[in-house]
Design brief:
Length: 184
């Protein structure tokens, strides 16, 4: 998949246009879950600790986290996997070069506004063809509550999850969690 980045990069440099795949074309989405699993395998091989910084309603806490527990959390971040059928059919891919950030962006949006995964952006350095970060936005709604998660996976460094919980008749609750393992 990363071999496509230079081609898309070069085609977007001259024109400034987006490359969009419509629902009628065969889609090969960036495999976010595979990338996360590769990062977790690398993390398991390194002698580093995972620090958890958590802030709930202004109350901060810091802990060292077990790698197995972090793996379960990290794998849940990429679910549901929109790169797999049948979900893939419901998403549109747009690829463009962001000259301001100097990154190729692979962006995925659902046709259905009620989809759990509302947005996925994969940011790739065109010089190295490596993922710099992944942004995922999820929304879960029930009768009297809504949970919105904004997730940033920074390659080789950290996972940040901001969760907004809205329950009818109660004040919103914001939970910020940052799992950091990056080497200095």
């Amino acid at each position: 998949m990363l071999l496509l980045v230079p081609i898309l990069y070069c085609s977007s440099c001259g024109q400034g246009d987006n490359t969009t795949k419509t629902s009628g074309e065969q889609k090969e989405f960036y495999p976010v879950m595979s990338f996360i699993r590769e990062e977790l395998t690398l993390l398991d091989s390194l002698p580093v600790a995972i620090s958890l910084y958590r802030d709930i309603a202004g109350k901060a806490d810091t802990n060292i986290m077990d790698k197995a527990a972090f793996r379960r959390i990290a794998e849940a971040v990429g679910e549901p996997d929109i790169s797999q059928e049948p979900l893939r059919k419901g998403y549109r891919e747009t690829v463009y070069m962001d000259a301001t950030l100097n990154l190729v962006t692979m962006s995925y949006r659902p046709a259905d506004a009620s989809a759990t995964v509302q947005k996925t952006d994969v940011y790739i350095d065109p010089a190295t063809e490596k993922v710099k970060s992944i942004y995922i936005e999820k929304q879960l709604s029930e009768a009297n509550s809504t949970i919105v998660q904004k997730i940033v996976w920074s390659a080789g460094r950290q996972l940040q999850v901001t969760t907004l919980v809205s329950i009818t008749g109660q004040p919103d609750k914001v939970i910020q969690e940052r799992y950091h393992w990056g080497l200095p």
